[in-house]
């Protein structure tokens, strides 16, 4: 089963983009348009009106869905002190769940926290277990960890689950390299 919309493919309203576009500045009022782009091509836009006080704010967004339906609603903004003690971190308060987050996702016509949409998955969640194991095996992680001097390989004479998974990943990677001609059979055995 393949899912068409994933967290990575839906439009996102992010605190990072508001800060980068100098929209989210304390003690300001701003009106404008935010554009969404994929590979440099404009895929949509939303209008906004934002009022930011010193520690909180409100952003009113408006947009038109593909079916012609107009949407307009308010999203609260709050700030919290940075754990590093150097300024404030800004967060949205999700209009559906009340959760705080730095990203809101447009799904089913509404910008909301990812957990508001039980049918919205990360792309990796749509892969089969076999595909996820294959991707893991070809990543750099298993081989960075496998040669870590602190890796516990055995417990009471039995390989640990982590070590067994790393060995399986190594075997998958070696098979792929052998089949692609990167290593010879002699090196493989």
Task: Explain this structure.
The chain has 189 residues and is of the alpha+beta class. The protein has two domains: 109 residues, no CATH class; 62 residues, no CATH class. Helix content is 24%, strand content 35%. It is built from five helices and eleven strands. The strands form three sheets. A six-stranded antiparallel beta sheet has the order 2-3-4-5-6-7, with no helix packed on it. It has a three-stranded antiparallel beta sheet with strand order 1-8-9. The protein has a two-stranded antiparallel ribbon with strand order 10-11. A hairpin with a 6-residue loop joins strand 5 and strand 6. Helix 2 crosses helix 4. The longest helix has 19 residues. The chain is elongated. The model has no long low-confidence stretch (mean pLDDT 85).
Write the layout of secondary structure elements.
Layout: E1 12-14, H1 15-20, E2 28-38, E3 41-52, E4 56-64, E5 70-81, E6 88-93, E7 100-101, E8 103-107, E9 110-112, H2 129-138, H3 141-146, E10 154-155, E11 158-159, H4 161-179, H5 185-188
Antiparallel strand pairs: 1-8, 2-3, 3-4, 4-5, 5-6, 6-7, 8-9, 10-11
Helix pairs in contact: 2-4
Spell the H/E element sequence: EHEEEEEEEEHHEEHH
| Rg for CA atoms | 23 Å
Q: What gross morphology would you assign?
A: elongated
Whole-number total of structural domains: 2
Total strand segments = 11
> What structural category arises from helix and sheet content?
alpha+beta
| Contiguous helical run count | 5
Helix content: 10-25%
Enumerate the strands of the largest sheet in spatial order, edge to edge or round the barrel: 2-3-4-5-6-7
Characterize the biggest β-sheet: 6 strands, antiparallel
Weakly predicted, low-confidence segments: none
What is the terminal-to-terminal distance?
37 Å
Average residue-wise pLDDT: 85
Strand content: 35-45%
């Amino acid at each position: 089963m393949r899912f068409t919309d994933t967290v990575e493919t839906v439009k996102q309203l992010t605190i990072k983009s508001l800060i980068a576009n100098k929209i989210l500045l304390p003690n300001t009022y701003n009106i404008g348009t935010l554009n969404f782009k994929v590979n440099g091509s404009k895929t949509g836009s939303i209008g906004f009106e934002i009022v930011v006080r010193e520690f909180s704010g409100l952003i009113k967004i408006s947009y038109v869905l593909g079916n012609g339906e107009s949407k307009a609603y308010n999203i609260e903004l709050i700030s919290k002190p940075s754990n590093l003690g150097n300024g404030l971190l800004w967060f949205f308060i999700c209009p559906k769940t009340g959760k705080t987050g730095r990203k809101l996702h447009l799904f089913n016509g509404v910008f909301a926290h990812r957990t508001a949409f039980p049918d919205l998955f990360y792309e990796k969640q749509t892969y089969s277990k076999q595909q996820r194991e294959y991707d893991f095996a070809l990543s750099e992680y298993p081989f960075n960890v496998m040669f870590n001097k602190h890796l516990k390989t055995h417990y009471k004479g039995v390989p640990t689950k982590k070590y067994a998974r790393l060995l399986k990943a190594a075997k998958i990677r070696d098979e792929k390299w052998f089949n692609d001609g990167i290593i010879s059979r002699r090196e493989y055995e």
